[in-house]
């Protein structure tokens, strides 16, 4: 099999309905929660901030004189500042949460699995890879295709190209769903897919959008599951900061 010669049919020819049962049969865990953004990292970060400042505030309350009043007040205000930053500049708070998330033992492995899936599926369906990163807070895989870029920016994506981009966009989500009970990194992927949908013509209905999302998870998950050795080899190469060319060589060697 030539790895780069996998074709996708236009959306109109893809299954009319992709049920959650089909995704579960594929091996996707908790398929019903795939489109629900995970709050695990956010909740852990905020709980830690509030819990730590609360504990320190109680200890500071034992200080003599006015210090026992002002220091707990200042410490307690940290939680309010964090919430204020989240309201005014969500990006800064998200960066802090991403850095904090490194405390989870599975987080770096999740990133590698997620981004390797984007890379592998992009490669398998013939989309050139420009670069990638597994750095926390900067995780990405960038594709390069001048024709697609023009179609996206002009809002002229047709059904065939939307299919291809949808599968790549949902690949990371699918890879996490096959391995873990909860998917943590789906928010950015869903946002990316919605951006592609908004740039397509003709526009598709809400029901079609939902089915496209599920179908893309199914297709991407099937490719990942059927090419497990390639995916794992790519995860290792990316984790070792291999170049894009070296990553492609790892894929082809594993094949």
TrEMBL record:
| A GO BP entry | proteolysis
Descriptive protein name: Uncharacterized protein LOC105123871 isoform X2
Q: Which PANTHER family match?
A: ATP-DEPENDENT ZINC METALLOPROTEASE-RELATED (PTHR33471:SF7)
Keywords for the protein's UniProt record, in alphabetical order = Membrane, Transmembrane, Transmembrane helix
Concerning InterPro entries, the annotation shows: Peptidase_M41-like
Q: Where are the transmembrane segments?
A: 43-63, 69-88
MF-aspect GO terms: ATP binding; ATP-dependent peptidase activity; metalloendopeptidase activity
